[in-house]
Amino acid sequence: MKISGNRQLRFQIKINKRLTVNKQRFSMTTILHLNLIAAIFFCFTSVHADEHVGVGAKPIQGSEVIFDGTRKMLDSKWTYWKGPRFSSSLPIKWKIVDDPVDGGTVLMTDDPVAAGGKFGTSDIVTKKKYRDFRLHVEFRVAKKRGNSGVYLQNRYEIQILDGDKTPHGMGAVINESESPYDAYNGTGNWNSYDILFRAARFQNGKRTEKAMVTMYFNGKKVHSNVEINKVWGGANSGLDGGNDGGRGITDVPGGLKLQNEGHDVRYRNIWIQELQLDDADTTF
């Protein structure tokens, strides 16, 4: 059958439109499929990554468990920090108590000499000292305004303070960052800090690079490569706290310290992995 010029043109346009529509449908279908595959992959990898981040995180390969809920491990791996305000005596008076949420046993910050917020009187610190490391620690604040703190290298405090949303408050690299309070699970619930810490670097006894930290709070990344300028809180707060107003950081490793301010704060599932971070980057 012979097709006239006009009819042939209309026929060709019709075919081209159908081809265009089919291509668009094919493209949309392909995109949807690719997005679905990407979403499935993302979920899978996120779940896998979260195995070692957040409340209940499992220790990563090569890490050391430094508190497992037992008195035996508390006595074998921890001691009191005997700073200028130290007022207690061994054995450690902090108590092993039942976990009211998930069962098992946990550590309670309970030493009467710290009553009234007297930090430094009965803080506990690991016997082992560290430079660069990856850390996981879980804590539960029992009551409103409960106060404690996690000290990296027995110098730099990651604050635990219920109700405080300032740079001195919950989850802050104390006085160095904002408080990521929205990530906090609240009183009576378990919370977690996952931390990658790089110690300060020195040349000829002088600090050339500041300490740096990245942190996840309950699985949410809240601090990224935060540089830490000084030890806050004075001599009673930790190593070098009394040196040049806390700016006189020395090239000495320090233990992981947990603070007692006379409040009911509980700890569990603490593990740490020693690292060597050559580059000034704590991303993980």
Folded structure, characterized:
- Strands 1, 3, 4, 6, 9, 12, 13 and 15 form an 8-stranded antiparallel β-sheet that branches.
- The termini are far apart.
- The protein has 2 domains: 1-50; 64-275, Jelly Rolls, CATH 2.60.120.560.
- The radius of gyration is 27 Å and the shape is globular.
- With 284 residues, it is α+β, with helices and mostly antiparallel strands.
- Residues 1-17, 19-26 and 37-48 have low confidence and may be disordered.
- The chain has helices at 5-50, 71-77; strands spanning 64-67, 78-80, 95-98, 105-108, 124-126, 132-141, 147-152, 156-161, 190-198, 201-203, 206-209, 211-217, 220-228, 257-258, 265-275.
- The chain contains 2 helices and 15 strands.
- 38% of the residues are buried.
- Helices cover 19% and strands 30% of the residues.
Named at the architecture level, the CATH assignment of the largest domain is Sandwich
Low-confidence stretches: 1-17, 19-26, 37-48
In the CATH hierarchy, the third-tier topology of the largest domain is known as Jelly Rolls
Q: Spell the H/E element sequence.
A: HEHEEEEEEEEEEEEEE
Please name the fourth-level CATH homologous superfamily of the largest domain: Exo-inulinase, domain 1
- What is the CATH domain class of the largest domain? Mainly Beta
How many distinct helices?
2
Number of folding domains? 2
What gap, in angstroms, lies between the N and C termini?
A: 71 Å
Taken as a percent bin, the fraction of beta residues is 25-35%
What's the overall geometry? Answer: globular
* Helix amount: 10-25%
Structural class of the helix and strand makeup?
Answer: alpha+beta
Mean pLDDT over the full residue set: 88
* Rg over alpha carbons: 27 Å
